[in-house]
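Consortium newsletter contribution from the modelling node. Members have asked for a concrete example of what our holo predictions look like. Here is one, prepared for the xanthosine-5'-monophosphate complex that several groups have been discussing at recent meetings.
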Amino acid sequence: MNSNVRPETMERITNAELANKFIEEQISEVRKQVGDKKVLLALSGGVDSSVVAALLLKAIGKQLVCVHVNHGLMRKNESENVVEVFRGQLDANLIYIDATDRFLDLLKGVADPESKRKIIGKEFIEVFAEEARKLDGVEFLAQGTIYPDILESIKQAEGKKAVKSHHNVGGLPEDLKFELVEPIKLLFKDEVRVVGETLGLPHAMVYRQPFPGPGLGVRCLGAITRDRLNALREADAILREEFDKNGLAEKVWQYFIAVPDIKSVGVKDDSRYEGWPAIIRAVNTKDAMTATIEEIPYAVLHKITQRITNEVEGINRVLYDLTPKPTGTIEWE
Ligand code: XMP
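And here is the predicted structure:
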């Protein structure tokens, strides 16, 4: 698939039968393109890179080398889950790199959101490039580019300004020249999910809510510290667990916790207890350009508040952000 333009005649992939047809076509295209060479893939655990990995595993098996970089800003158990699914269940050739210390050391004391994004994006490429240089015989780089990414870059080329920079896929350094393999680049997100499920990926992975490239880094507001990041990760895990239990995960498009760099006075076991607030953000949107607030049952909010304040070290209040976009953006940074 060389063209970057989706033909008008291309049928929307809405069921397993159409997905299987697409998968078969792509398997043969990929085999033709890469022959017996190796293909490298940055596997974040997001929907797009996971579907590309599953598709390429079917097409070329161990010729695919997946690299998962844990930047230390992943949600609870997320990296472990990527390793379990791709190495454990799908027998993929997967290199796992825990680069937590590298990222957190670089981010120490950096409070400006755009600087944080730049540092995370740049370091991500650096870590990935270091791994790529260690490998022999890799001539191809697979990417989970999807059609909205192509449409977005056309818009940017036309000079439209973004509110925030999204540093996900930056260019690799000059010495690393790969030919691109982009098997899902003409698909819309709903089609990617149908293809993913047809390939046998877990439902939770295929329907995962969007998660920003810089991860919890833009939710641990201001300068990141390990203790506040850990508190955020634990609180976020509780929020997700309660949303799952109460059927809200299917109803709300994106939901997460942000923890600002402020402390307030509270009380615990009859003593003064200074802690951070955990802010619940739960929004619905079609295209992330605008967003509305979903009404969450009071009992669920109450339970989440109780659990977070009881179970998470360092948090003494829970707040619920009722601001639509605009004026608030979805993320706080
Ligand atoms: P905002 O905060 O701009 O978010 O209303 C819109 C959507 O984009 C996600 N987001 C990002 N995604 N890298 C990403 O890959 C980023 O730097 C980034 N910043 C925001 C956000 O989670 C929401 O889905």
